[in-house]
């Protein structure tokens, strides 16, 4: 399926595979870097740093206003010493993926799930 140009936002996910003793330190480093990135890039809406129960993976989830906002912020990435981060935390592998968000279900005040159609529109989902 081709990416829809009318998506709600653009999501970038980076999964790091690290030794269990490095998981917490990498997660903290990613939180710090994400805060710095958010200050420099207005198009960054949301960042989530997640860790696996097995201690070997860290997932960084970045949500951008649009693919264009992500592209405009790409200049900020050049300043990031990404390879240094990987070496410092002994990352054994890194997986990158990107997605266009078409629909997002959120729990409303009424307890039901609602599908966000756009910034100002929402309708009740099943």
Automatic annotation (TrEMBL):
<dbReference type="InterPro" id="IPR011008">
    <property type="entry name" value="Dimeric_a/b-barrel"/>
</dbReference>
<keyword id="KW-0503">Monooxygenase</keyword>
<dbReference type="GO" id="GO:0004497">
    <property type="term" value="F:monooxygenase activity"/>
</dbReference>
<keyword id="KW-0560">Oxidoreductase</keyword>
<dbReference type="Pfam" id="PF03992">
    <property type="entry name" value="ABM"/>
</dbReference>
<feature type="domain" description="ABM">
    <location>
        <begin position="10"/>
        <end position="72"/>
    </location>
</feature>
<dbReference type="InterPro" id="IPR007138">
    <property type="entry name" value="ABM_dom"/>
</dbReference>
<protein>
    <submittedName>
        <fullName>Antibiotic biosynthesis monooxygenase</fullName>
    </submittedName>
</protein>
């Amino acid at each position: 399926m081709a990416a829809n140009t009318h998506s709600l936002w653009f999501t970038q996910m980076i999964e790091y595979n690290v030794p269990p003793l490095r998981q917490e330190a990498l997660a903290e480093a990613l939180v710090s870097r994400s805060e710095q990135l958010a200050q420099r890039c207005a198009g960054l809406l949301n960042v989530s740093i997640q860790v696996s129960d097995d201690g070997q993976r860290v997932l960084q989830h970045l949500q951008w206003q649009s693919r264009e906002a992500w592209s405009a912020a790409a200049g900020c990435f050049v300043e990031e010493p990404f390879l240094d981060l990987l070496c410092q935390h002994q990352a054994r592998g890194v997986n990158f993926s990107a997605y266009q968000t078409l629909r997002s279900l959120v729990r409303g005040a009424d307890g039901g799930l609602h599908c966000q159609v756009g910034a100002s529109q929402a309708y009740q989902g099943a």
